[in-house]
Specification:
With about 950 residues, this protein is of the alpha/beta class. Helices cover about 45% and strands about 15% of the residues. The radius of gyration is 30 Å and the shape is globular. The mean pLDDT is about 90.
């Protein structure tokens, strides 16, 4: 790995700022790959903030003879988001979006995740047209640049056909904004040569009727091979032609600084089913009748797909080589229309040999399960590959009527070339097939085999089916050498002239789409080192990244795994340069990879194969604990009453010291900052560095006494286990009213419960504070002691147990397995779940407060499906309740928000701004609520006003009744 050019780094630092030019080995390696089989190590990673800085970067590349590549989500499957020069990372600063015209259009900068746009559009019963499987990780800049389509978009609803306007910066710095009605006039006036050049290419293509007819025909189906030549036929003005040429151009013609799409309606009712066929050919033959019946989505899965899903889906039959399935979905605006479609679908299937009766479900959980399996299928299959092999997926389009033939021919091709572990799936309505395979590119024999296979595959698609070798993934590096094969010399020459017109110096993503090197797809292939059985499944797809709290601050889960692989690979190399690189990576990884990992395991929820990078980081942390630290943690768990007393005492001393002033001088603040900084250096995992600006909670008040019901004699009994968080952490600055424990106790008393605490409460802890720091023995000690106390307090399981922190409830639920194993049962709830499931069903009506309740769901709620309970409670007791579209982990992660406050500041910034805007615009008394004290503290910092427990919302409502 060659070091970066110091002159380049200095030049880029002058254009941007040194802080936004990443050039350490860790930064460059961590961002060196995308979801493809290619790895190129950039010389530098830059993060421009605005159009002016992008224009300066382009000007610099023109002067210096350098090149750059724009990256948004990095989910690209064909190597179009990697470079060996300047990588321009857009996600950190290009993430503004807004809904237009009541949901009929949406405007976005390129660094916004497609799924986030859909969440913004959901209240308007609309969504963006493209719906790739990666929509919850892919960003709109990449979706448009690849002309992604997905399950239901087909051709009509893809990025090209739903494009309303673009703002693009060309290689020479020209800015074209087609949202302006006079965009074409401005382009003609300011850039006459460019305007005339586009017109010349348009007229030449239109005059060549055979080629024009071929272009029209090929773009009637999915096709992302090469450039969008149909723009010259579909549009007349150079400005509009230019805008539509950018769709599918993969950043090789210009930079998309903003995108406006027309949206598509989101039907209210859906019905989904997995229909199993005994023969693949029958599944293919059923596509057209089901489409005619109104099916919005038809996803075909071959036998290997079904085998890959066996851990997630059971089958009432044996899978043979010819078994296949169609994931079928009907969508309609009303129930009557949906029933009619289902009936038509059943009728269409009547003549086919099904392995089991077709069943279509409207149950949301079942539907989501089916679609989650399908969207994660490629990654799931990739996880089954042998350790050390690379994951590769490609897609092609063939005539729908010949779909089954194509699948059969593809399968024969896999066998002929001995391509291992291959699956076939696809968007059957569009004749769009994807295959997934694994290759060990450490072996030249495997590389040679792959080369022969790709030649044969391209020949089959082009010569055998006159199809598209790329249907929706973008040409990328993998298919660039074959673009001429599909399109022929005339069209290819036109594409080259287009590239020269818009990027004469070749500074924009060179080698992607057009590449005259016939071996380009066989170069810069990823070599993957084995690091652990779980992490080895990672294909670096990037699905995890949008859920990672540290993604905007340090590393994402994907990048942590990349660096871990690199460190493992370096262990086997003995050169001095390798040793120096390993030392550098380890030093930087301590903070970037370990300290700033929240360990919340949210990455696992979006990973199709459930890779828990948080658990991997905890394993690494555990190996670094000294025996002394382990003994200290165990002692703290065994004497938790003393531990919590010391923590409260520290908070009291902090508050007292901070209050000391000497005239105008903040003597106490300076003292706290100095002493805490010294202690933090000595014990960085235990004591935070408290600067003068850091808001810290006061010590918690004494717990209220166990309560009897407010209204009449007790009808039920409940064990309330106040979490150690609510027993230690009290009110934040600006917070008034009862404590969380007082709110919970008061609400339960109103509901008619006798409230009791477990015996020896001060010594009890669920174990999460120790588990999060990778002290497994201490965590087990604490949780076992607590579970036994709760078992006794609940009268051996007769009474429910309620805690006020959802992470605590989640941790106790995991520990409950020990009780169950011994034949004992215990019902555990967090407050929101208990109130939603046990209290509200017993009351026909409950008191409300006016105003809006904005909710921050904790990681535990999102991971275990508890968000619905939180919404139920808030909707019962507030006039309106919402969860922000940007809601994600706040990054507080137990104590990270105290020890690494920049993690929480980064993770919670976007959601905090959205909550603040909602509360500022709300009518009546409104507030923000969550279900964990530390998360409430972190979100309060981000919002700029108190975020409290949802128990406070309930208490306010019932106390006024």
């Amino acid at each position: 790995m060659r070091p970066p050019d110091p002159g380049l780094v200095a030049d880029l630092g002058r254009i941007l700022s040194p802080a936004r030019v990443l050039h350490r080995s860790l930064d460059r390696l961590g961002r060196s790959g995308d979801a493809s089989v290619y790895r190129l190590i950039p010389q530098a990673v830059v993060r421009p903030r605005d159009q002016g800085e992008v224009a300066e970067l382009l000007a610099y590349c023109r002067r210096a003879g350098r090149h750059l590549t724009f990256r948004t989500g990095g989910t690209s499957l064909s190597g179009q988001a990697v470079t060996d020069d300047i990588l321009v990372e857009l996600a950190p600063f290009w993430n503004a979006a807004r809904v237009l015209d009541g949901g009929q259009r949406v405007w976005s900068q390129p660094g916004v995740v497609g799924g986030h746009l859909n969440r913004m559009l959901a209240p308007h019963a609309a969504r963006i047209g493209p719906d790739p499987a990666s929509i919850d990780a892919a960003m709109i800049g990449g979706i448009v640049s690849n002309n992604s389509s997905g399950m239901c978009a087909g051709v009509v609803q893809n990025s090209y056909h739903t494009l309303d306007a673009l703002e693009v910066i060309l290689a020479d710095g020209t800015v074209v904004n087609t949202a302006r009605s006079d965009a074409d006039s401005i382009l003609r006036r300011d850039h006459p040569a460019l305007h005339a050049g586009i017109l010349a290419l348009r007229d030449e293509l239109r005059a060549n009727e055979p080629l024009a007819a071929r272009v029209r025909r090929k773009f009637q189906t999915k096709n992302t091979t090469g450039y969008s030549l149909h723009a010259f036929l579909d549009h007349d003005t150079p400005a509009q032609i230019l805008a539509h040429l950018m769709v599918g151009a993969q950043g090789t013609l210009g930079f998309l600084s903003s995108i406006t799409l027309r949206t598509v309606p989101e039907p209210k009712s859906r019905s989904t089913g997995l229909v199993f066929f005994s023969d693949l050919r029958e599944a293919g033959a059923a596509v057209e009748p089901l489409a005619a019946a109104g099916a919005a989505a038809l996803e075909i899965l071959d036998a290997n797909c079904l085998r890959a899903l066996e851990s997630q889906q059971s089958y009432p039959f044996s899978i043979t080589k010819r078994t296949a399935a169609l994931l079928t979905e009907f969508r309609a605006d009303d129930e009557e229309a949906l029933r009619a479609m289902e009936a038509a679908g059943q009728g269409a299937l009547g003549s086919f040999g099904l392995l089991s009766p077709a069943r279509f479900s409207r149950d949301e959980a079942e539907r989501m399960h089916l679609w989650k399996m399908r969207k994660g299928l490629a990654t799931t299959a990739g996880a089954l590959r042998p350790s050390g092999t690379a994951f590769l997926t490609e897609d092609a389009a063939v005539p729908v009527a010949r779909l089954a033939d194509a699948i059969t021919d593809f399968q024969s091709l896999f066998a002929e070339y001995d391509v291992p572990d291959t699956i076939l799936l696809g968007h059957a309505k569009d004749g769009n097939l994807h295959f997934v395979l694994a290759e060990d590119f450490r072996s030249q024999k495997a590389v040679d085999r792959y080369a022969r296979f790709m030649e044969a595959f391209v020949g089959l698609v082009v010569d055998g089916y006159d199809g598209a070798i790329k249907a929706e993934h973008g040409s990328g590096r993998n298919m660039a050498p074959f673009v001429r094969k599909e399109w022929g010399d005339e069209a290819y020459a036109l594409m080259k002239r287009l590239k020269t017109l818009l990027d004469p110096q070749g500074i924009l993503n060179p080698g992607v789409i057009l590449n005259d090197d016939p071996q380009a797809h066989l170069k810069d292939l990823k070599i993957l080192s084995s690091i652990s059985p779980l992490a080895d499944k990672c294909i670096e797809c990037g699905f995890c990244e949008p859920r990672c709290p540290s993604r905007g601050l340090t590393l994402s889960p994907r990048q942590r795994i990349v660096i871990a692989r690199e460190l493992t690979g370096l262990e086997n190399r003995t050169g001095s340069e390798d040793a120096a690189l390993r030392a550098e990576l380890e030093a930087d990884f301590a903070y970037e990879g370990l300290e700033t990992c929240a360990g919340d395991s949210m990455c696992q929820t979006s990973c199709p194969v459930k890779i828990d990078t948080g658990a991997l980081v905890k394993e690494i942390r555990a190996t670094r604990h000294s025996s002394w630290a382990k003994r200290l943690a165990r002692a703290a768990a065994e004497r938790f009453a003393l531990t919590s007393t010391l923590a409260r005492t520290g908070l009291r001393l902090l508050a007292i010291t901070r209050a000391v002033r000497l005239g105008p001088f903040d003597l106490g603040g300076a003292l706290v900052e100095s002493v805490s900084g010294f202690l933090h250096e000595a014990a960085p995992t235990l004591i935070p560095r408290v600067d003068r600006a850091m808001a810290m909670p006061r010590a918690a008040k004494a717990l209220p006494r166990p309560a009897l019901p407010r209204n009449g004699p007790p009808v039920r009994r409940v064990v309330y286990f106040p979490s150690c968080l609510s027993r230690i952490l009290g009110a934040q600055p600006g917070e008034t009213g009862p404590s969380t424990a007082e709110a919970v106790t008061g609400a339960l008393a109103w509901a008619g419960y006798e409230v009791v605490h477990p015996e020896g409460l001060a010594s009890l802890c669920c174990g999460m504070p120790f588990a999060s720091k990778a002290f497994s023995s201490a965590a087990a000690c604490a949780s076992e002691h607590t579970m036994e106390a709760l078992w006794r307090a609940s009268r051996e399981g007769a009474d429910p147990v309620v805690t006020d922190a959802s992470p605590c409830a989640g941790t106790l639920e995991d520990a409950r397995a020990g009780l169950v194993a011994s034949g004992r049962e215990l019902r555990l709830f967090d407050f929101a779940a208990f109130w939603a499931r046990e209290v509200l069903p017993r009351h026909e009506s409950v008191p409300r407060v006016s105003g809006l309740a904005v909710l921050h769901p904790t990681c535990t709620l999102m991971k275990h499906g508890g968000t619905a309970d939180l919404l139920t409670v808030a909707r019962a007791h507030a006039a309106e309740a919402v969860i922000p579209a940007s809601a994600e982990c706040c990054g507080f992660a137990g104590d990270r928000g105290f020890l690494v406050p920049e993690l929480t500041a980064s993770a919670a910034a976007r959601e905090g701004a959205e909550i603040r805007a909602r509360l500022d615009g709300a009518e009546g008394p409104s507030g923000a609520f969550s279900t964990c004290r530390t998360c409430e503290i972190g979100m309060s910092r981000a919002v700029g006003r108190p975020v409290r427990s949802v128990a406070h919302l309930v208490h306010e409502a019932v106390s006024g009744a």
